[in-house]
Amino acid sequence: MGIQQQNYWLTTAEMPKADASRAIPQSVDVAVIGAGFTGLSAARTLAKKGASVAVLEAETIGWGASSRNGGMVLSGMKLGVNKLISMYGRERTQRMYAASLASIDCVEQIVREENIACDFSRCGHLEVACKQAHFDDYARQVEVIRREFNHELKIVPRGELRSEIGSDSYYGGMVDESSVGVNPARYVAGLGAAAIRAGACVFEQTRVQKIERASQTAVAGWKVTTPRGALWAKNVFVGTSGYTGAATPALQKKIIPIGSYIIATEVLPDALARQLSPRNRMIYDSKNYIYYYRLTPDNRMLFGGRAAFFPETGDSIRKSAEILQRGMIEVYPQLRDTKVEFVWGGTLDFAFDIMPHAGQIDGIHYALGYAGHGVAMATYQGHLMALEMAGESPENPFVGIPFPGAPLGLYNGKPWFLPFAGAYYKFLDWVS
Ligand SMILES: Cc1cc2nc3c(=O)[nH]c(=O)nc-3n(C[C@H](O)[C@H](O)[C@H](O)COP(=O)(O)OP(=O)(O)OC[C@H]3O[C@@H](n4cnc5c(N)ncnc54)[C@H](O)[C@@H]3O)c2cc1C
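Above: query sequence and flavin-adenine dinucleotide SMILES. Below: predicted holo structure tokens.
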């Protein structure tokens, strides 16, 4: 079989069907925009709290990053702990780190409660060092994480790395046993089914075009316009991540959409799969232009990276397949003759400070900015923001932190600077 431009995960999952004949309701407590982890998790929690919820999705359930990702449910954030402490101080960083661990538990609890068959496994993650200096920094990070967050990571020196990974490319590694692997398409399908079971209504092929302030019977709220008609909602929650568009211009200006791409090989013989990843970890490297990889439950090597910075097109996906296959063979020469069967891409959401953000903007609730760490955090933020809209005050360290826009305001939602950013990060990998 040649390479198919198709998301491998979708060949293993069946998305729940929203009732296409159902009319948009006239009014709801909450209109949720986007049916990925963020929106569906919020919809599930809200519906369980008794709220009436309409999830409005431009495409289909799970169509965005939520079905396309590596399925790595990771501790920590995109930024390292020392950087976080320098930005937010010790106390808030402690709460953020605790939230990252709680977000993994939140996924586990939902998977258990809703009985979602998504190959959830606490297999841990392995970060591998591309340079000696990166490995030297691991010891400092482990020490800070132990001291500040009371959480244990393990250093794996170069001489012992073969017990973790069948590659000689790296200077050593760092393991966190608390991270998890899932099949993301099955997980988002299960989350969607759970939200529907709880009473949320999902409307597919229903792109939100406009959101305007509107009162109804003296209650403040929003008129939400779609091609299938308009509805009135007391609250609006935006979970559109890297696909945030013109319907929410204030958020669009704060989020940079960045392409990420994945290849999946043919099914590998068991012995080879165990040699490549003896403990079946979720693996990523220490570069800015990162590679992330793992085995799938049926023993394919799934290898991803920011092979092109632009969001996905047919052309960028084709080129990415070549770049990623070369990268995979550099890491694993054993895969030189292995066929690549699938390639696909998706869009990540980066805020200008590379942090998750949640709260309200002009009265509209939102959560986004997961920067490639969204499987757990999107689920968790959707849940927390739902509690907030239901009138509770959950602990959420990402609410209220500064949410910067582009320097000098030079950004209208069209990322003209991405080729420069891509070149800049490649340069950083070369020099640092
Ligand atoms: C290739 C790739 C690999 C990744 N790997 C990992 C990983 O291994 N681990 C990890 O933690 N994270 C990973 N991520 C990130 C993670 O997938 C995302 O952070 C997460 O899925 C975000 O979920 P979401 O629900 O916020 O957004 P999405 O799943 O992107 O959903 C947003 C939805 O909003 C809809 N939408 C947009 N505008 C409108 C509108 N106007 N009206 C109605 N609907 C609209 C879109 O159609 C889309 O379905 C990866 C992402 C990609 C792309």
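The two ends are 40 Å apart (CA to CA).
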